[in-house]
Amino acid sequence: MSVELLIRRTWLWGIVGISLVAVVSSVAGALVAELEGVLGALLGTAVGFAFLALTPLSITWALRAGRGDVLRPGFFAVVLGVWLAKFVVFLALVFWLGDVAWADSTTLFLTIVAALLVGLIVEVTVVIRSRPPEIDVELPSSSHT
User: Fold this and answer.
1) Residue 74 is assigned to a structural domain of this protein
2) 48-80, pLDDT tens digit by residue?
3) Residue range(s) defining the domain that contains residue 50
4) Is residue 143 part of a domain?
């Protein structure tokens, strides 16, 4: 399976998953904290989508940096760098957005976590399903004469 197809599948299923998170968390936020809960859920969904979007983009950038070879240091540098940046930004956003008065901080935090988990599940599922099937083939034995 090509990298472009993997990226398209990640985008498609990621948008579906994040949309479900948006609906469920918005309804739950509305029930728990009214408008502030809905705003927290929508903001958390937007943050989760941004993190999900960075993964296929980072793979595209990494392939360019590694000149198409996933074993080159440039590939690993880009993927690891984006992963570390996502982690730092996640922590910064949780602390910074936790203090906004117009959004429920609990709904916001739980939505971000849910969106990140859905994104992780989507990414892992797409990669696992993209692996080529194993083929059981008996190779001819070599004889030493």
Assistant:
1) yes
2) 999 888 888 888 888 888 887 777 888 888 888
3) 3-129
4) no
Instruction: Dump the DSSP string for 39-77.
Output: HHHHHHHHHHHHHHHHHHHHHHHHHHHTTT-TTSHHHHH
User: Phi, psi at residue 137, to the nearest 5°?
Assistant: -125, 135
Identify whether 144 is part of a domain. Answer: no
**Residue 32 and residue 38: Cα distance in Å, rounded?**
9
Q: State which H helix or E strand residue 18 sits in.
A: helix 3-65
Residue 135 forms part of a structural domain: no
According to DSSP, residue 137 is labeled: -
pTM of the model: 0.77
Our count of domains for the chain comes to 1
* Nearest Cα to Cα of residue 110 among 56, 33, 54, 53: 33
Q: Which residue has the tokens 């960075």?
A: 54
